Amino acid sequence: EEVVSSLSSLSLFLCLQSTTNCICSPGKLPQTSIMAVEYEGGVVIGADSRTTTGAYVANRVTDKLTKVTERIYCCRSGSAADTQAVANMVTYYLGLQEMELGEAPLVKTAANTFRQICYSNREQLSAGIICAGWDERDGGQVYSIPLGGMCLRQPFAIGGSGSTFIYGHVDKTFQLGMTKEECFDFVKNSLALAMARDGSSGGVIRLASISADGVERRVILGHELPKFWEG
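-> structure tokens emitted (231 positions)
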């Protein structure tokens, strides 16, 4: 109850956050491409790197893969200010929990903390989150927390305006039981397709694998992006 009350009381703080620099525009689908997929023993997450201020590209190399704990990350889409503030709050609460309990937080706990903040402040926030990571109890997990604050575990999740272009591709390509490298290729190709079609996504592709062995990060630069036919 204490945590819920504290999270709700942050509404005013969130209202005061600037939404000038956005991964989305007010009233529109978050202008971003983010993705995460589970594999045996971990997860692979990825995102494009474009942040816009209206039609102007304010930052072409944004890191939208945000560390929450040592084994839990989130992919951010929406207002840059809102999603950064929410990620910082979740990091704070999970840090407190880890100190009190003496063990690493569960991915499910992180996802539900994101859900609580996003749902309680759904009228003020523009934040679409994918929370993914690894813990000793349930292994690799992916949770989608879209605009409005719903929370759903999925074998893979896509988000942002670029995701609307690749539903057919991911439905056809995804298979249960893929290896880590197959997941890296799946996320890389999916994001490259989204970035090619979506004018609000672009820059480089940032990827990360999270498992019991730690976090492995990769960057696919602009000239290294997979090429596809464009009519």
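The chain is about 30% helix and 30% strand.
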